[in-house]
Each structure stands twice: as structure tokens, then as C-alpha cells.
Amino acid sequence: MKHIRASLLPAAALAAAAAAVLAAGAARAQDNTAAEIAKYRQMLAEGNPAELWEAAGEELWKKPAGPRNVSLEQCDLGKGPGVVKGAYAELPRFFPDTGKVMDLEQRLAYCRVTLQGLTRDEAMRNPFSAPGKSSDIERLVAYITSESRGLPMNVQLKHPEEKRVYALGQKMFFYRGGAYDFACATCHAVDGQRIRLQDLPNLLTQKGAQAAYTTWPAYRVSQGEVRTMQHRLYDCLRQQRFPEPAYGSDVITALSLFLARNANGGAYDGPSMKR
Ligand code: HEC
């Protein structure tokens, strides 16, 4: 992304400039593609490594833990205590017990605090894995999301708070700022835009939002890790040169609600595999 010198351009030229730069990298990266695709094909044949995360997450979900030594099995992810099946396809949603719209990871932290007795800090610690440092949160998320595989996204905007948070996510999507004066929309509101080899989905269309939203978390072949939607959005905000969002912040929930709702009707298909 360093090659985008958008800050030198007048604001009006930004979207066009971004599109041009995005196309330019494609040819250069062509050579690496064959090797990457071969690696990818081999992994596909062997199954998705994300299954290991799902299995580890299920174990964590069912294992008594924390100061109270209880499992997460009675966690209410929105469909009642203990119901994991289909819960993710309806998130983010309004929760009457907290009076808030929460995404999966905010809710998971809430359950770890209220059921297991962890402090909020403990429940939010280590959300993203790094080499040699695995993340329980990523594993739990891989398990929970896998229990919605094949189900249509069904995110409601019934409660006034859901409407408010959706509008906030929409506003955030178009909000320009940072050194480049980019918004999410700069990269994700046009059809057929690319950076290097990566197609940038138009997240305002149902097709684009479905393809993007329903395939996270994903096992990243290039990183050897499972990455969550939280991480995806964190990474895009970083590329946008926005301040780093706090893990589990309401801004991420608002963006997620906006994207998830736009993806309604699409079959949830994660955890998937991506390059
Ligand atoms: C500078 C361009 C840029 C901006 C601005 C940007 N993104 Fe991205 N986005 C990317 C790139 C590049 C990828 C693919 C990255 C990869 O595959 O590693 C991506 C991927 C994504 C994906 C996953 C798509 C898929 O099919 O898997 C989502 C969702 C997403 N971005 C949302 C956002 C949101 C929301 C914002 C605003 C907060 C945003 N992006 C801002 C460049 C950008």
C-alpha cells in the first residue's frame, strides 16, 4: 500500500487514482501467482486447516474455565442460552440484557465475564494470533461461526438500536479521513477494482457483501493463521491509515452490522480459506 501516494493528489482525483494504482500491481504479481495457486490447490485437496481451529474452539467452549470454573455452554448468543447453531447468521443483534447491539466477539467477551468470571481485560486479551502465540478467541470464533455454515444470513433491523447502529456503520463506511483521505468506499464501492491480485468486493452490492462477509473467518494460506472479521476490519482500517480501533469496539460492531445486513440472504460459508 505504500505505493499509493494519494496524499499528494487533489481530493477529487482520489478514487480514480486509487483505481489506477490498484490495476498497476496486477501484472507484476503475476509470476508469484502460479506458485501460490499450486499451494492453494494442494491445501484444498487436504481439507481446510480451519477445521483444526473449529475443533479446538469447540473444546474451549465446552471446557470449564475461569475463576468460576464453568464452560461457555450456557452463553446466550442471541437465540437463547446454549444455542450456538445458527447464532452467527443473525449477528450483530440487539441484546436486551445489555441494552446494546453486540457482534459475536463483544458477546463472547460478555459471556466469559458473566459466566466464567473473567475480568473484561482478561476476556478481551489476545484476540489475534501471531507466530508462536495462538488465540483462544480466534478458536472460539471459528467454532461458533462454523455452526452457522450453510444457513442464510438473517440480520434484522427491527430494534431502534439496530437501525441506529446500522446507520452508524453506513456513515463510517463513507467517512473519509487519514493521511490518504480514504474511506472504505474508496476501495470497496466500485465493481471490478483490484489491489495487486486481490479483487476488492463492492460491499454495497448484495453479491459483493455476501461473497465477502459470509467467508470470514478464513484460514489465510499466506499467513498460516485463521483470521476473523474483526481482524479483517482492523487490517483495512490500518491500510486506510485510520487510528487502530480498540478490539471489540462499537465502531467495528457498526461496520459489521452494515456489512452483515447487506449480505442478508446469502448462505454463510465460513470459516473458509483464502490466500
Ligand atoms: C486502501 C484500500 C482499502 C480500504 C480503504 C479498505 N479496504 Fe477492505 N480490503 C482491501 C484489500 C486490499 C482487501 C483484500 C486483503 C487481503 O485479501 O488480504 C480488503 C478486504 C476487505 C474485506 C474482505 C473481502 C473478502 O472478499 O474477503 C472486507 C469485508 C473489507 N475489506 C472491508 C473494509 C471496510 C469495512 C473498510 C473501511 C473500514 C475497508 N475495507 C477499507 C483494501 C481496502
Give a description of the structure.
With 275 residues, the protein is mainly alpha-helical. The protein has a single domain, classed as Cytochrome c-like domain (Cytochrome Bc1 Complex, Chain D, domain 2, Orthogonal Bundle). The chain has 10 helices and 7 strands. The protein has helices at 14-46, 50-62, 104-114, 120-124, 136-146, 160-174, 184-188, 206-213, 229-239, 250-262; strands at residues 93-95, 100-102, 193-195, 198-200, 218-220, 225-227, 272-274. The strands form 3 sheets. The protein has a 3-stranded mixed sheet. A two-stranded antiparallel sheet has the order 1-2. Strand 5 (218-220) and strand 6 (225-227) form a beta hairpin. The longest helix is centred in the first third of the chain and has 33 residues, at 14-46. It is globular. 38% of the residues are buried. Residues 1-14 have low confidence and may be disordered. The protein binds heme C. Heme C binds next to helix 7, strand 4, helix 8, helix 9 and helix 10.
